[in-house]
Amino acid sequence: MEPLVSIIVPCYNSSKFITATLNSVIAQDYKSWELIIIDDKSTDDSCNIVEAFASKYHNIQFISLSENKGVSNARNLGMTMAKGKYIAFLDSDDIWLENKLSRQVAYMEDKMLPMTFCAYNRINEDGAIISGVTPAPVTYSYHQLLSHNVIIFSTSMVLKSVIGDLQFSPAGHEDWIFFLQLFKKCKLGYGINEPLALYRIRKDSLSSNKMKAVVKTWKILRESEKLNLAMSMYYFSRYAVLTVLKRLR
């Protein structure tokens, strides 16, 4: 029997994109999955769209929150509901290629891996590809993560037993903090160097605000990871260099 994959999708005002995201899950050639969608009190038509999907597919669960508490809370709630051997994360504006789940599950089952991620393409708000393939390294470690996070969250799949009681922090850059805590437990993440996902770049996305990203990176090193000043400066310098090189590419 194929292992169950629990897919967690936090949603907030994603009516423009959520249909394509959910259709990409339904189109997967791997069929042993459950989809848990947590709406964080959207004010647009997101809930109506998701409810229509949930009424049609028995393996889609939809939770509509009465109060907006942020993406970390939504993901944490989704993880408590997850029944799968694996948990896959998908943001409500990103898209999976049809063999994303089958490729990752097969790799993880064959190699007995705790966590995988994959290469991807960037798309714009209209769904057009705007970059070449961003490759995935063979492995990625905690110390590499301290310098730079190359893992797009919608490409990740994690063994649920490895996550355990780990939760998302509300501190900002919650994806990065989650991976740092996870890699302390599983040591390495393993990359599949095939583009299995489409990562959407939005004009209003947090990642587009470079100054906020710089400030939050420093706070992660000092407050979340509690590195001393010298080590924080070392990893922050590496972060700055790698970010500049990324922009130049």
List keywords for this structure.
249 residues, alpha/beta, Spore Coat Polysaccharide Biosynthesis Protein SpsA, Chain A, 2 domains, nine-stranded mixed β-sheet, 9 helices, globular, transferase
Structure description:
This protein has 249 residues and is an alpha/beta fold. It folds into two domains: 198 residues, Spore Coat Polysaccharide Biosynthesis Protein SpsA, Chain A (Alpha-Beta Complex), CATH 3.90.550; 41 residues. Strands 1, 2, 3, 4, 5, 6, 7, 8 and 9 form a nine-stranded mixed β-sheet that branches. Helix 2 links the parallel strand 2 and strand 3. Helix 8 runs antiparallel to helix 9. This is Glycosyl transferase.
Summarize the structure.
Residues 6-133 form the Glycosyltransferase 2-like domain. By secondary structure, the protein is of the alpha/beta class.
